[in-house]
Amino acid sequence: MGKPIIFDTDIGSDIDDAYALALILQCPELELTGVTVGHGPTRQRAKLALKMLHYTGRDAVPVAVGRESDWDVNQAPWAEDFDLLSPIEQPAAEFVVETIDSRPGEITLICVGPFTNLGDALELDPAVMQKARRVIVMGGCIGLPDGATPEPHPEYNATTDAEATQKLLASCGAITLVPLDVTKHVPLSERNRQLLAEADLPLPRALTELYEYWPGETPLLHDPLAVGMAVLPRFCQTERMRISVDDAGATLISEDGIEMAVCSTVEAEAFLHFFMSRLLSEWGGK
Fold first, then answer.
1. Pairwise CA distance, residues 205 & 24, whole Å
2. I need a surface site. Which of 118, 130, 227, 261 has the fewest CB within 10 A?
3. Which of 187, 168, 188, 193 is nearest to 244 (CA)?
4. Which residues in the chain come in under a pLDDT of 50?
5. Which residue ranges form the domains of the chain, and what is each CATH number?
6. Which residues contact 4 (CB under 8 A, 6 or more apart)?
7. What is the model's pLDDT at position 286?
8. What is the DSSP annotation of 185-229?
9. Would you say 139 and 179 are in contact if contact means Cβ atoms under 8 Å apart?
10. Given this model, what pLDDT does residue 283 score?
11. Distance between CA 114 and CA 43 in Å, rounded?
């Protein structure tokens, strides 16, 4: 049995959330105990996650939805008619708290979307993140001199709900932050997209179909890299840094911040090889 994880996502806007969920489903090292979806029309996002789970026979994995708000979910048409599975009734924040409380010190939380669900969970239980085994956060932009973004700039996950980002990154010392500084070094090339399109396998087929709805061209594997760090931490070198979050959601190195592990460099080719080999595997994770 793999390491138990909760995957918190805003699947359906940027394509990398779908790639990340697919990677989880192809990693026997991970036990997916639940998916929580947040930001925007969360029930549309939930349908996307549920359809992907169904593709791999993972119908028993619970999907919990967070608060609804207005936003574009460009990939929603892929699952608009899917009704074989439904999300659970329990709200996402309650699911996070109950699941971590039931297995203290065991659950790894992988957070790859705006952090509203986790801010809500911390309102219910301010100590909940301290009970997790590990919290891996894709978000922020530090402005590391040798990174892909030497000049810091706003990062979507962190700035969309700045208050929730402040709560999450101040919640415990067991956080691993995977910022734009490293994730922008990991694009999914046209050749690799073609390999996925040519594979006669359920998940690559689903990802190829979802890609057709996405308005971008070259995906950056922000969220899959966070998943990779849950499997093999060697993909990124980390440094202990004190990070604070201002009221706009900017992530700053600060003496007043909370110390955490920050990914500072990435073995991009090694990660891409891992990512592609897993997605082109027939394992399926049932």
1. 16
2. 130
3. 168
4. 285-286
5. 3-279 (3.90.245.10)
6. 31, 33, 103, 106, 107, 108
7. 47
8. T-B--HHHHHHHHH--SHHHHHHHHHHHH-S-SS-B-HHHHHHHH
9. yes
10. 66
11. 16
